[in-house]
Amino acid sequence: MFKAVRIHETGGPAVMRWEDYDPGAPGPGEVRLNQEAVGLNFIDVYHRTGLYPLPALPGVLGLEGAGVVESVGAGVSDVKPGDRVAYAGIPPGAYAQVRCIPAHRLVRLPDSITTRQAAGMMLRGMTARYLLFGCYPVKAGDRILIHAAAGGVGAIVSQWASHLGAEVIGTVGSAKKAEIAKANGCAHPIRYGDVDFAEQVQDITGGRGVDVVYDSIGQATFMKSLDCLRPMGTMVSFGQASGAVAPLEIGVLAAKGSLFLTRPSLMAYTARREDLLDHARDLFDVVGKGAVTISIGQTYRLEDAARAHQDLENRKTTASTVLIP
């Protein structure tokens, strides 16, 4: 019998149970996957707490993983047994040694990328791709602000944006994380606990403001992030690690300079098969040529996922976190 981390109710890390789990045989259009690595993401916390409900309880957490195809169901032709593949996004179910998943959500891995790397980069890397090309088309000479610059998404965004020729400003929580951010192409790491980050951004930009802000922190940073933007700049709110953003009177956007605001999701940007493949291709390309390096900051056994969640919520992690089944 295989094992998985399941929740029978929502709540804190203690609701996660390491228990027997049989995913069954793959149905039509599905693949049964032997998982070699699983990615940890903040959306897993949202599913665990019930902020974003799972389809049903009991349920298996996790939206990102990589491994080897064991068997395929009827009608599957894109992948075959023995293929190394990865995925990121719905349906949940990654926190398992073996799982079934729709074949159309899988991408085959190049030989140059390990399954551990893939599990640490698919969701974050494809998120970085839609942030930099979909929400706002970052180009040479642009100035961007990325919150949590030493985190999984922040590290990839900083490297990729720097490769595009943008000037990267980032917020971090410690001197150690400032060093990590700088090594990843963040030209101006700001320790938000020591200074007013909005004032610092205005100082760095000579009062002009940045072209785009990428904010995964939410409640604690949202309003000050608006103050970092140039007129007609773009605010991208793609997470809420500190809590949900309060309801907004949209006139604020006009008052602060005719700002644009978007709340995107990877699921929307990769809903079509061709878009998923485009995101993965571009990610594999920048990683393959060394423009973006995927750093696995820490690994945990899958059965220790509760401890990994605690460390993530307490901001003890850096870069990407991988769970090993």
From TrEMBL:
<dbReference type="InterPro" id="IPR036291">
    <property type="entry name" value="NAD(P)-bd_dom_sf"/>
</dbReference>
<dbReference type="InterPro" id="IPR002364">
    <property type="entry name" value="Quin_OxRdtase/zeta-crystal_CS"/>
</dbReference>
<dbReference type="Pfam" id="PF00107">
    <property type="entry name" value="ADH_zinc_N"/>
</dbReference>
<keyword id="KW-0521">NADP</keyword>
<dbReference type="GO" id="GO:0003960">
    <property type="term" value="F:quinone reductase (NADPH) activity"/>
</dbReference>
<dbReference type="GO" id="GO:0008270">
    <property type="term" value="F:zinc ion binding"/>
</dbReference>
<dbReference type="InterPro" id="IPR011032">
    <property type="entry name" value="GroES-like_sf"/>
</dbReference>
<dbReference type="InterPro" id="IPR020843">
    <property type="entry name" value="ER"/>
</dbReference>
<dbReference type="InterPro" id="IPR013154">
    <property type="entry name" value="ADH-like_N"/>
</dbReference>
<dbReference type="GO" id="GO:0005829">
    <property type="term" value="C:cytosol"/>
</dbReference>
<dbReference type="GO" id="GO:0070402">
    <property type="term" value="F:NADPH binding"/>
</dbReference>
<dbReference type="InterPro" id="IPR047618">
    <property type="entry name" value="QOR-like"/>
</dbReference>
<protein>
    <submittedName>
        <fullName>Quinone oxidoreductase</fullName>
    </submittedName>
</protein>
<dbReference type="InterPro" id="IPR013149">
    <property type="entry name" value="ADH-like_C"/>
</dbReference>
<feature type="domain" description="Enoyl reductase (ER)">
    <location>
        <begin position="11"/>
        <end position="323"/>
    </location>
</feature>
<keyword id="KW-0560">Oxidoreductase</keyword>
<dbReference type="Pfam" id="PF08240">
    <property type="entry name" value="ADH_N"/>
</dbReference>
<dbReference type="GO" id="GO:0035925">
    <property type="term" value="F:mRNA 3'-UTR AU-rich region binding"/>
</dbReference>
